[in-house]
Amino acid sequence: MYIHLGGDVLIKKNKIVAIIDLDTVTEDKINQKFLKSLKNSNKVNYISENGKEKTLVITVKEHYLSSISSTTLYKRGGLV
Questions:
Q1: How far is the C-alpha of 40 from the C-alpha of 4, rounded, in Å?
Q2: Rounded Cα–Cα distance for residues 77 and 1 (Å)
C-alpha cells in the first residue's frame, strides 16, 4: 500500500520508519538541532513550501517535509 505525502509523492507504507508532528518535536532543543541538521543535509525532500511544513516523514532512504498533518497521514496509511 502507498501513502500520498502531498504533491506528486507516494511512498510505500512498509518503507516508512516514522511520521513525526513538527509542532511536537520543535519544543525540545535537541529535536530542533536534529531538524536543523536534516534541513542542511541533502536527504530532505520538501513537498510543501518552506515554512509550511507540518510533518516529518522518515523513510529507509530519505526524509520528507510535508504540509499534510501527521494525523491525516496516519489515517491514510490505516495506522490509526
A1: 24
A2: 8
What does each C-alpha distance from 45 to 39, 52, 80 come to in angstroms? 9, 13, 25
Residue 44 in grid coordinates: 530532505
**Predicted structure pTM score:** 0.84
Q: pLDDT of 36-49, one tens digit each?
A: 888 888 778 888 77
Residue 49 grid coordinates = 513550501
Phi, psi of 29 (to 5 degrees): -65, -35
Q: What is the largest CA-CA distance in the chain?
A: 35
Pick from 43, 79, 50: nearest CA to 64:
43
DSSP symbol at 75: H
32-39 contacts at long range (C-beta below 8 A, 24 or more positions apart) = 38/63, 39/65
C-alpha cell at 56: 516529518
